[in-house]
Write a structure and sequence with these properties.
The chain contains 3 helices and 7 strands. Strand 3 and strand 4 form a beta hairpin. By secondary structure, the chain is an alpha+beta fold.
Length: 147
């Protein structure tokens, strides 16, 4: 199914661009954490990667805790801020995390859509039946490159 059918708000003025090919090597949580070589999820059996510092629970609090362990803090907006990188957590109507996105330096957002492509998009264009709503935005200071 084409992405625009899964996410109707991607079409029209909220256009998107595919930024990398389909792969099942990683998911949106890993992509938000700047990784593209393993699947992140707090499954109870420990099959997927999940940081030890965070509860292995499918809750918004556990996802926030996970990214706080990576240096993020809660913030109250999704606007591009100089010196910061941001991530957004989507939840369904029950408050269960469904998706994450990461802000790019141009102010747009990037997401790994399941086992499909990575895309560049407007943040709220993914809200709807599939991923629910943006429930939290976190930020951290951009880290200087290591040598």
């Amino acid at each position: 199914m084409p992405l625009a059918q899964l996410f109707p708000q991607l079409s029209g003025h909220n256009s998107y661009q595919i930024s990398s090919p389909r792969t099942g090597d990683y998911n949106c949580i890993a992509w938000a954490a700047l990784e593209n070589d393993r699947w992140w999820w707090p499954d109870q059996h420990g099959i997927a990667y999940w940081p030890e510092a965070a509860p292995r629970e499918e809750t918004l609090d556990a996802f926030v805790c996970t990214f706080e362990s990576l240096g993020y803090e809660s913030c109250n907006n999704s606007v591009l801020e100089s010196g910061f990188e941001k991530i957004a957590i989507f939840t369904d109507s029950n408050g269960i995390p469904t998706h994450m996105a990461r802000q790019l330096q141009n102010g747009r957002w990037t997401s790994k859509v399941g086992k499909l492509e990575d895309i560049e998009h407007d943040l709220y264009a993914l809200e709807g039946v599939a991923y629910g709503q943006v429930a939290a935005v976190l930020r951290r200071a951009i880290r200087a490159p290591t040598r």
